[in-house]
């Protein structure tokens, strides 16, 4: 396991270096994701240890909380429009995605619903195992969806806005070591507590919550060391890529077209919805696109930090999407099961 992990992280680091030198958007996230994914498909065993994954989530979460300020509370009055946009886009993606998988790819109703679900991967895969849906197909489609979103979303933002996504954040005063140690300790405790409550991305949300409180109150001022956050981003990108370890090329071929069509349609809908939202309220287009993009919770929050968006805004919308999907997916599954029996 140690050798596999070291190889995976080495490949991720090489991917990050290559992406940074090439000037790719969010290079420390997209570079490792692309390289490790290709390695897994080629047959290499790739993995990131659970302990390192959780540590990575804590570092990213702590870094995200440093962006919080009292002004965010006033800005929250502008968020209902984007939340309605999120709910509408999620519903449309599920309805038309399930229809497409049934009609175009001959999926049964349960597989179509779970394959089209825009996020909540662990919940989706758990339901697929319990209900007898095609778990292999769903897993590949959903993993490709996350990978496509990780690689395409920064490019879409770069094309739609004038944001420089390869730029480094401006330097800020750093957290003192005692404050950093205190926040990290509290984040570990919060992560374990949220994990017991079965919260998604428990350690990331725990780190973010602790950091938000510390920075929002002014008790722990300062930012995270850039080298530490860069390393955490490389780990996150590597983790995304490991989802393709052991996946056969035949499985990729079968599900790739479905994933490509679903993801392309989702991104187009998200961009259109984001444009509608920013025409109604004064919000940055980059922030709204990331808040509505149906990627993984951890990935989209991490990407918001990588491209200079507001992590609190993005994270709030993605947590809300998890709760919405927790209600929509079982209802859609029940409807699909009744339709399959008729």
From TrEMBL:
GO terms for biological process: regulation of gene expression. It comes from the Bacteria. The chain crosses the membrane at residues 28-48, 55-73, 79-101, 144-161, 173-194, 201-219, 231-250, 257-281. The keyword Transferase does not apply. The keyword Transmembrane helix applies. Pfam families: AbrB. Keywords: Membrane, Signal, Transmembrane, Transmembrane helix. One of its GO terms (cellular component) is membrane. Residues 1-18 form the signal peptide. This is AbrB family transcriptional regulator.
